[in-house]
Design a protein that fits this description.
734 residues, alpha/beta, 21 strands, 12% strand, globular
């Protein structure tokens, strides 16, 4: 069929005169704001007005429904990533055209109800906000919200303009726009995004029609009615006007000085739009959206947080052709902080958990960790005593290996000692299932080496959890030389079963995440040795978009551990016959240890600590590392850390440690805090933009790397492999 006869909005009018507009793109599994939707909605609204005509009783109301599993998926993100700055006029015109049809629908002189059967995020919710009443199915899997900020965008389909008028400036910004929060239907109702809930999808359209019949005069939005006053006041009202100057400062504080264009644009569009009439505010919103769409930041974030995350969650890194697998009974070896956290997430996912330690008292303490998490959730109204009892009932603390009988999954989480790891596996091997998946939680020890201490190396795999396990969303899966595809598929399924995001990497010392973060931390310390002011280093880290300042992070990671890793790395490289050049940051580690300041655990590091609470930077730091008279630009300090991680990521690709840009991006952001606005370590390189020339891509990246190398050392030189990749116009594998 040609697009002339296709429609993405089906029009049906019943005997009562109620029109149902069903969103149903025939060419896609989900509805998006593409050209077919735009023309179809425009035609449907035109038909509404034509059929209504002068006969006020011809149409009694309108229901907006969806034939897809999700109500509406939002804007066409693929199209957005293909735009350039030259496309700005077309982007603006498209945004205005899409909103024009919704505005006409909103002004239709009969009630309009949105029947939300599935996820209504971004553009999907913006369609619903144009309705007079919103009804959703009460299913917790349904999500409602405006998450555009997390993709480097703003809700440009009327989301900013309508939420500001619906909830007021402060509530709109804090509750819905700046954070991009997604709500389940009950929470959406509590917040006012949804007006009514029904128990099943079959009840949605009948409930919508019933509301129309009961509210025949409810066709005007509050902001279109005479006498409307914005909740909380508009920017000119004295109470709000006095508070408004604090908004940019609060946003800057929230972002820690990092450059997030979307949040700044949302704040500007909200406040500027609140000063003018609805249609002018809508145009302001479109202008800010256009600027975000055509610039690189949104493209980087869309790549990571939509395309890459979607690919990983759909199994792009999982071996194909292997049946899905679900673990039922897991043995967790070691009840320290990591083991206790692993036990909690496994029990939460419904697994029967045997938490083993050398002494049952230790295992009981590990179980108590779960109890503490659940007590906190109950105090916040997020759980109940019944759910707590049910989850704790699934965790059996023990010191007896025989209790692992029947386990189809084993996760070891003891100290980073190959001999100890081999010992605990040997203890339980006679009892667990013969085909049980055997996993080691390690952050640096090579999996192939650890597999030598286990009788079944083909079933052995690394699962690198991040601390705290209950909060960190990522698990790094590491395959050894003998790990087979069935074990990898099972491990992938386990990570998803416990509701974490998996990335898959090949064996290497430090794997991907631990290896890469080490270069960022070392670079921060190297700058300290060069005389860069410590507060400048910390400020630049946060301005770059990292979640924690680098010296603060070093204190948390512990310099004693860093020294051990550096020693093991050196020994490993020399044993393999490789050249070893010590990073200049390692000298700082040794100097701090000599000064008796290994980090937060010991109460003294780069910062002072009192009762475990971090204070100011240690006053004696300037004596150990005198501050130079000439200080480098903040931009160089930021780039040295970003480029250190990115260049090591490129080496990981070159060596085959990591084989997927999606894994590199999501792993670096979720695992080690690489700045989210860059789109991740791989996207940072392929989407790198030279602000002076406007050049974008790997070629621009390696030119900046050369510049840093000339100023700060050869470690910033791109390898010949990366230079060849850039010269050929290539990229990293998806």
């Amino acid at each position: 069929m040609s697009t002339d006869t296709q429609t993405a909005v089906r029009y049906e009018r019943d005997a009562d005169g109620i029109v149902t507009l069903t969103l149903d793109d025939p060419n896609q599994s989900a509805n998006t704001m593409n050209e077919l939707y735009r023309s179809s909605m425009e035609a449907a609204v035109e038909r509404l007005y034509n059929e209504h005509g002068d006969d006020d009783s011809a149409i009694r109301g309108v229901v907006i429904a969806s034939a897809k599993k999700t109500f509406f998926a939002g804007g066409d993100l693929k199209l957005m990533t293909q735009t350039t700055k030259e496309n700005a006029p077309e982007v603006f015109a498209l945004a205005e055209n899409i909103k024009a049809a919704l505005r006409r629908l909103e002004l239709f002189p009969k009630p309009v109800v949105a029947a939300i059967n599935g996820a209504a995020l971004g553009g999907g919710l913006e369609i619903c906000l144009a309705a007079n009443h919103r009804i959703a199915v009460d299913d917790r899997s349904v999500k409602v919200g405006l998450p555009e900020a997390s993709l480097g965008l703003l809700p440009g389909g009327g989301g900013v303009t309508r939420t500001v008028r619906m909830f007021g400036i402060q509530s709109a910004l804090m509750d819905f726009l700046l954070q991009g929060t997604q709500f389940d239907p009950q929470k959406a109702k509590d917040k006012g995004l949804v007006n009514e809930l029904v128990a099943s999808r079959e009840e949605l359209v009948p409930a919508a029609k019933a509301w129309i019949k009961a509210n025949p005069e409810a066709s005007a939005q509050p902001w279109d009615a005479p006498g409307y006053k914005m909740p909380g006041g508009n920017p000119k009202s004295p109470a709000l006007a006095a508070f408004l100057p604090a908004f940019p400062a609060l946003l800057r504080q929230q972002l820690k000085g990092a450059d997030y264009p979307a949040q700044k644009a949302i704040l500007s569009a909200a406040i500027e739009g609140a000063n003018v009439d609805f249609d002018t505010a809508s145009r302001i919103e479109s202008r800010y959206l256009t600027n975000l769409v055509v610039n690189q930041n949104s493209k980087n974030m869309i790549q990571a947080f939509f395309f890459d995350l979607q690919a990983i969650n759909s199994g792009s890194l999982r071996p194909q052709g292997i049946e899905p697998w679900k673990a039922t009974k897991v043995g967790v070896l070691g009840a320290g902080m990591m083991g206790a956290g692993i036990a909690y997430v496994c029990a939460k996912a419904g697994m029967e958990v045997v938490l083993k330690d050398v002494a049952v008292e230790n295992a009981e303490k590990g179980k108590a960790y779960s109890e503490g998490i659940l007590d906190k959730a109950i105090s916040r109204g997020k759980s109940t005593e019944e759910k707590k009892a049910e989850l704790l009932g699934r965790i059996k603390p023990t010191a007896d290996p025989a209790d692992l009988t029947g386990c189809d999954l084993v996760i070891e989480a003891v100290f980073e000692d190959p001999a100890l790891k081999a010992k605990v596996f040997a203890e339980v091997a006679p009892f667990v299932n013969k085909d049980a998946l055997l996993c080691s939680n390690t952050s640096t020890l090579p999996i192939t080496q650890l597999a030598e201490g286990v009788g079944r190396p083909t079933d052995f795999i690394g699962l690198h959890f991040f601390s705290p396990v209950d909060k960190m969303p990522l698990v790094e899966i590491i395959t050894g030389k003998e790990t087979n595809e069935v074990a990898l598929a099972k491990a992938y399924d386990v990570v998803q079963q416990i509701r974490k995001t998996p990335i898959v990497v090949n064996d290497s010392r430090g794997f991907y995440t631990s290896r890469v973060i080490g270069y960022m931390v070392n670079e921060g310390m190297a700058m300290l040795a060069e005389g860069v002011a410590p507060y400048s280093i910390e400020r630049a880290t946060l301005m770059a978009g990292y979640p924690a300042a680098v010296l603060q992070l070093s204190d948390e990671l512990n310099l004693e551990l860093m020294a051990k890793i550096a020693k093991a790395t050196k020994e490993g490289e020399l044993a393999a016959g490789n050249d070893y050049v010590e990073h200049p940051g390692i000298a700082v580690v040794h100097k701090m240890l000599e000064a008796g300041r290994p980090g937060r655990l010991r109460g003294a590091g780069f910062y002072d600590y009192e009762d475990g609470k971090r204070g100011s930077i240690w006053a004696g730091l300037s004596e150990l590392f005198p501050v130079a008279e000439q200080q480098p630009p903040l931009e160089d300090i930021k780039d040295r850390m970003l480029f250190a991680e990115a260049l090591e990521t490129a080496k990981c690709f070159e060596e085959g440690v990591i084989t997927s840009a999606a894994a590199a991006n999501i792993g670096s952001i979720m695992g080690i805090g690489f700045p989210p606005m860059t789109g991740g370590a791989a996207q940072f390189m392929t989407g790198y933009e030279d602000k002076q020339t406007g050049e974008i891509g790997l070629d621009a990246f390696h030119k900046r790397a050369d510049d840093l190398a000339a100023r700060y050392g050869d470690r910033f030189q791109a390898t010949p492999w990366l230079r060849d990749l850039a010269a050929s116009g290539g990229s990293f594998p998806a």
